[in-house]
Protein 1
Amino acid sequence: MNILKPFGRITAMVALVFAAISCNTTDNSEPELELIPVNSVTVDGYTVSLEVEKEIETGANYLYWKVEQDGKIITPQSITVNPMMDMGDMMHSTPYTQPETAEEDDRYFKNMAVFIMPGGMMGSWTINFEIMTQTDEVISGEMPIDVASSWKLTSVQDDNDNVYFITWYAPQKPVVGNNDLTFLVHTRESMMNFPVVENLEMEVYPYMDMGGGSGHSTNFTNPVTAGDGFYNGDINYSMSGTWTTSVELIVENDTLPEVVFEYSVQAE
Ligand SMILES: [Cu+2]
């Protein structure tokens, strides 16, 4: 009967080892990238794929680029992109950055594009890409994409017809309680060039219309410039439901007309 004792100990040790392993995997705080395929294009034996975290829409989007050769992921030296909307009688680009190796997963290159118009009746979006392989081979092509419309982008003009594109960057999904409140601001230098605008003053005001002429605001801090066109504040929603947030930009002491974002806040 004594013969069972060591087995018991071994079982206990095995259980401990398993507990340690499963602890490790669940404790891993890196959020898992969950990407949706958008489109892929094959050029000269290289398959270039575009993947995203959420459906591409007006406002800010992160685009993840993957290049494969013979079914294997390769790491190019660089990927250069240029989003373009063909509106029939004219073409224009949109604010965007160039792809760099994704911190979350180095099999991908990642960039941001802020789409200023949805695709559809008005025109269609394509992302032109140029890839330099490790052997200096250049692969170029174009990737057609759909851009849905969203509530997260609006624009305003000043008296000199300068346009400012205001993107609601965060919260992407507003919830009751405290949320980081982040905007991005770009202007248009030409149809191909949309630089960020830093050091503006911004005045926001969140409001919930309760009907019958009554309504209320909630606690918030006004966003302030954080560099690269980002403006960071906070918003603490007291209730779920439909909210508006007005935004005024102050450009060199000139207060531009107010724009309003309207969206729904979830109960968490
Ligand atoms: Cu357009």
Protein 2
Amino acid sequence: MVEESKRTLAYICPSCRQAVIAERSVFQLAASANAIPCPCGKSALRVEMMGDRVKLTVPCLFCESDHTVACSSKAFLHEKTLAFACAASGLDCCYAGEEAPVFAAMKRLEEAVDKLERDAGEKGAFLDELVMHEVLSELKEIAQRDGISCACGSRKWKLQVNYSSIDLFCADCGAAMRIPAATASDIDDICCRNTMVIHGK
Ligand SMILES: [Zn+2]
Ligand SMILES: [Zn+2]
Ligand SMILES: [Zn+2]
């Protein structure tokens, strides 16, 4: 048997974050569309050969959505390793090729992902630090004007800061309101408000 009769495919499952690595024979790949599922069952890499092109649908760890990438069948079946990158993060999201280099590339990617997650943990982990800061200080100004109240008539409230939003809770009736703090337009939205009313459910 010639060496390139099998290809190794790899990605990281966005749901359980484990590396999923599988081998498929060239025959299997050419015969029909292939799915390489994560053992957790929540994601799958899909490979479809269409003549001289190969289409891959890759679950992306960073975007938590699928990317569709394509390359030539010749490269897909013969290159030592092919790396497909996520356009949003610039990081690789999928590898295809020979077993050893794919395993090596996957190990490097797992290390990079670990590092990113550690860094995010250390930074306090807001989606956008600046937006969160601005939205919080706008909220503080409204609070200083005594502008925060609940539909139930209460003026006692609690606040919880999340990764990309802030939750306001009424201390009396428990009603909640989520204020997004992810993008610049979230700053604009809260900027022009004099009061905040926590609506009951
Ligand atoms: Zn999984
Ligand atoms: Zn992505
Ligand atoms: Zn209330």
